[in-house]
Amino acid sequence: MEVVCLDLEGVLVPEIWIAFSKASGIPELKRTTRDEPDYDKLMRWRLGILKEHGLGLKEIQETIETIDPLDGAKEFLDELRSLTQTIIISDTFTQFASPLMKKLGMPTIFCNSLVVAPNGEITDFKMRIEKSKLSTVKALQSIGYDTIASGDSYNDLDMILASKAGFLFRSTEQIKKDHPDLPAFEEYSDLLAAIKKELS
Prior knowledge:
Elements: E1 2-6, H1 16-24, H2 39-53, H3 57-64, H4 73-83, E2 85-93, H5 94-103, E3 108-116, E4 122-126, H6 132-142, E5 146-151, H7 157-162, E6 165-169, H8 173-178, E7 184-185, H9 188-199
Parallel strand pairs: 1-2, 1-5, 2-3, 5-6, 6-7
Antiparallel strand pairs: 3-4
């Protein structure tokens, strides 16, 4: 039995923080897990910038409502889900992901949650589990699943490397250079073909 584990941002939908950076006019918020491997450090830095500018959950959700899946992402996901069980494992938050899941046909997603004050300020975040992507893949393996994983960022590497098969998708030149052994794809058709080969 196989299960495919996919990252969300950069793989199926645009990066939420980059979209919000543009919408808010705050260039510093363009920094993502493609640039910063330490997710805790990145999020605490982001929350500091939001506080400094008086921005909260409402403003980010308004931007998320305008985000559509990447071209071809829903069709890719629909075909993949017709072939095998598929789970999105993301370091994003339920408060961000919900509208995007509707646009993707309500796939299963495992992600984290934000701590939001009554005034809408994001005061903290709760990770579902430590090293959530790797922990989830290992948990699936412990109950008899072979995992096939794909993502684009530093925080995807653990689940990719721990899986039966793993692929980079639209990753950075630096990550591809650091991991020349990992197949890297730019098109959904190529990623789908590689996954199908592992399923056969």
